[in-house]
Every structure is written in structure tokens, then in C-alpha cells.
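Hypothesis: this fold can be encoded by more than one sequence.
Test: take the C-alpha cells below, design a sequence, compare later.
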């Protein structure tokens, strides 16, 4: 696949996004934080990254859309491919990679003084996308994020006036407005109440029909509810994080191959 703008991708092209990493290592200065991570994140599936704090899950997530390189003294080895194209050494610029591989962070980060509608469009504007029908983009994105019915009569209100769960869904809508092929989510429900968490999980299920999703979560029940496949990360004392086991979520939770996986998913540590 050659480098193209996200706005020109057809639905069929966008629905075939596969992320593959091969023997990925990561460092912060001399600190080796990830070692030998090889994973395939299949198109139109939700992949959950699970494991204790400090085992490199969030670092790995940021590697997937070139945010790792923004950290001073961070370095990287291995291959990260989007549909077979190396996103670090291939023809795609960092900006194009981040258009096609969107990110939703743990803490909602809408622009508080900007209106709800303008928040949705902010990412598209920053990326220089030509929007032929702004109102349609706002409505479609908010609908996909499960927020439209709650805010459709107050799109001019400040985004910062929304509840925490609504702000997180607004950030999801902002990410979806640029039509990513992949959406990365770093513990998007960690600070939310059960009702907001359920709505986010419903949104994940809906958008995975045409977007590949990778989510970091410490909630084992959530991983079982939302994901098709899982990867269990672990780091030993003084050792970098690595993947102990990966595969279908059902298998990882019901019949894992490694006893450490069984102990973790059953709450015996972590």
C-alpha cells in the first residue's frame, strides 16, 4: 500500500487494516522497557493488551503510532507494519501514520473552552483534512461514539462542561472524525463509572465493525467482554516487558498455556 491521505481511503480499504509487530524492543535512554514483542492485530477485531502496571503495555501502544519517538532519548528496534508497510522506515510520514492510527488516552483531553462541535473537528483541522460537510462529520462521529443523542441540541456548548464519560466519548468522536483505520485506546475507562464504562464498551463493539481496535486494560472482565484476542505482557524484576502469551481471548482466559497467564487472569497477582 502506498501512502495516501485518510480522507481518500475507501470503506473497503479502511476495513482491512492489520497491524503487525516483529521483534520490537524499546528503550528510554539505557532503560530497556520492552523486549522481543511480536504480535499480529487482526483487521476488524479488538485486541486487548493486559498485564500488571509497568510491563510496557502503554509504551507498546504508543509505539504503534509513532508517539514513542516523541519522548526524549527514546529508541526502538524491530518492525511495525500497517498492512505490510513499515510505519517507521517506509514511505509514511509520522503525521500520516497518526492520521491512520488514531489514539484515545486514559484521561479525557477535550479542548475545554472549545465547543463540542469544534472539538470533534479539531483533529481533522490539525491534520489539514478538507471537510466537505462539517455538520455531517460532526453528527456521524458523535453517533459512532455513542454521544449524539446526548449533545445534539447543545453542540455549541463547551466540551469541558461534559461529564467525564461524555468527555471520553467526545475524544473518541474526535479521533473517529479523521477516519482512522486503527484506533488505539489506553485504559479509556479507568476513571469512569460503570454506566459510562458500559457505553464506551458498546462504542468499541460498534466501531470494531470497520476499525481495528487495540486497547490497554487492567480490567479482566472488560478484556473478556470487548476483545477478540489478547496479549499478556509481563516484566520480571529488572527485566524488560515481554509477551508471555497471546491468542484468542476465549482461549487465554479458559485454557491458557502458561501458568503465569492463568494466575494473572484469575487475579492471583497483579
Amino acid at each position: 500500500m502506498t501512502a495516501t491521505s485518510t480522507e481518500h481511503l475507501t470503506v473497503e480499504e479502511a476495513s482491512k487494516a492489520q497491524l503487525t509487530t516483529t521483534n520490537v524492543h524499546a528503550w528510554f535512554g539505557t532503560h530497556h522497557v520492552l523486549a522481543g514483542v511480536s504480535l499480529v492485530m487482526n483487521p476488524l477485531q479488538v485486541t486487548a493488551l493486559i498485564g500488571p502496571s509497568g510491563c510496557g503495555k502503554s509504551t507498546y501502544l504508543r509505539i504503534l503510532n509513532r508517539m514513542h519517538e516523541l519522548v526524549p532519548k527514546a529508541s526502538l528496534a524491530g518492525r511495525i507494519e500497517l498492512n505490510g508497510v513499515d510505519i517507521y522506515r517506509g514511505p509514511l510520514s509520522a503525521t500520516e501514520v497518526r492520521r491512520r492510527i488514531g489514539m484515545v488516552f486514559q484521561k479525557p483531553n477535550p479542548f475545554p473552552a472549545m465547543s463540542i462541535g469544534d472539538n470533534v473537528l479539531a483533529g481533522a483541522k490539525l491534520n489539514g483534512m478538507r471537510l466537505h460537510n462539517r455538520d455531517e462529520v460532526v453528527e456521524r462521529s458523535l453517533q459512532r461514539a455513542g454521544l449524539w443523542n446526548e449533545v445534539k441540541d447543545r453542540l455549541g456548548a463547551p466540551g469541558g462542561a461534559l461529564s467525564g464519560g461524555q468527555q471520553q466519548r467526545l475524544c473518541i468522536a474526535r479521533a473517529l472524525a479523521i477516519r482512522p483505520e486503527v484506533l488505539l485506546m489506553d485504559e479509556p475507562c479507568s476513571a469512569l463509572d460503570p454506566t459510562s464504562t458500559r457505553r464506551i464498551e458498546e462504542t468499541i463493539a460498534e466501531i470494531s465493525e470497520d476499525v481495528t481496535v487495540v486497547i490497554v486494560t487492567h480490567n479482566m472482565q472488560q478484556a473478556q467482554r470487548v476483545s477478540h484476542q489478547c496479549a499478556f505482557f509481563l516484566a520480571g524484576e529488572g527485566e524488560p516487558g515481554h509477551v508471555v502469551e497471546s491468542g484468542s481471548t476465549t482461549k487465554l482466559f479458559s485454557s491458557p498455556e502458561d501458568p503465569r497467564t492463568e494466575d494473572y487472569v484469575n487475579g492471583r497477582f497483579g
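Residues 1-14 have pLDDT under 50 and may be disordered. The radius of gyration is 18 Å.
Hypothesis status: open.
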